[in-house]
Structures are given as C-alpha cells and as structure tokens.
Amino acid sequence: MEEVGNTLGRKVVVKVLPALFALHFSLFTSCEQAKEHTAAAVNERDSASMMVSYGVNTLISDSGVIKYKIVTERWDVNTIKNPSRWTFEKGVFFEQFDQQFHVEAYVQADTAWYFDQQKLWKLRGRVRIRNVNGLIYESEELYWDGLKHELYSYVFSKVVTPERTLQGTYFRSDEHMRHYTVSNSKGSFTTEDMEKDDNQQNSAPGDTTQQQVEPILRPQATKHAKTVNPQQ
Fold first, then answer.
1. How many CB atoms are located within 10 Å of the residue 110 CB?
2. Of 4, 46, 50, 229, whose CB is crowded by the most CB atoms within 10 A?
3. Per residue in 77-116, pLDDT tens?
4. Rounded to whole angstroms, how far apart are CA atoms 77 and 69?
5. 3-state secondary structure string, 35-87?
6. For 88, how many CA atoms within 13 A lie in the half-sphere containing its CB?
C-alpha cells in the first residue's frame, strides 16, 4: 500500500508541476508585454481659464471710471496664456460711456478677445458699431487699441453716415469715430456734399472727417470740329 501511495503521489506531482510551470511562464511573459497608458502630468498652473461666467451683464471700469457695459453669453478669463486675455466665444455686445456716463456708442461682434495687458480688443464676425452721430460701421474684423485710443481694420469695411456711404479695405479712426480714414475705397455722394465738406474744412478743420475716396466722375463730352468738304 505504501508503494502504491508513493507511486500515485509521484504521478500527481509529475502532472501538476508542468501545469504550474506553464502558468508561471504565461504570467511572466504577459507582465513583460504589458504597457502602461498614462496621461501627461498636469502642471500646477495649467492653461485652463481662471474664470468662466455665463449670462453676463456687467459694467467694466477703467482707472476708476466706468467705460463699458458688457452683455455676453459666455466670458472666459485666462491669465496663464501669453498674452493673457478675455475671450467671448459666444458673441458680445457692449456700450461705451463717456465721463458723464452718457452712451457714446454700441459695439457688437460674433467673437471677441480682449488682451488686458495691451488693452487691445480684437473683434471678429459681423462687427457693427453705431455712435451718437448716426455713423454706422460694419466689417468682419476690427481692432480697438485702448492705449492709442484708435480703431483700425485691414479688411473690407463699410461706413454709413447720414450724408454718404464709404467702402474700403483699410480703415482707421479715433475711438469716438469722429475723425476717420478709409483708403482703397469706393463711394458716391453729391457735389453739394463735397462743397459742404470743403467749407467745413476751411472753417473748422479739427471737426471734419478725413477721407480718401475715389469719387465716381462722369467723362467730359469731347467736342469734334465740323468736317469741311474740300470739294466745296
């Protein structure tokens, strides 16, 4: 009985050892082939916005004076990006005030960025401005420099006033839209308007509007001498 038991024990051991060896080998090889899938480490100061606001209707001051009223669906403030900026991806509408808190103009655009360190606005997509004098400005892109207090654009722009309509691919103006320049332009207006502008420039050049315009002129009629028949 002892010999039979020892024989059976040896057979069991002989059969179990290959199975354990194969299991150990498979586990060892699978561990060697495994690869880690990990994301990059997140820095302490990531590029995410420090503030995201929805449904904004607020007043913005500059040097202690209220300058704008901003209405937007989404407002992102990011101070980590270089340069730091405010982003209005869902469109923006704002009013500009003078020192007496009177509305000077309203501005709207589909998208806007404000680079707070440079005090520079970049407006893009259906940009529209209207001031208290009835001037309407339309373009697809416009820059507003708060340090130089001027507006400028290098794309097609349209300026409509009660007297005339001007269109051009370059626009520059003071931030109140009182003195502006449109170059590479096309437009039409009456001779009476041109004479009125000349009189205003002679009387008060500081209050006039600067223009660079190619007026549409009618070619002068050419007079032909009467043909004389030499046989007569």
1. 15
2. 50
3. 998 888 999 999 999 998 988 888 888 899 999 999 999 9
4. 17
5. CCCCCCCCCCCCCCCCEEEEEEEEEEEECCEEEEEEEEEEEEEECCCCCCEEE
6. 24
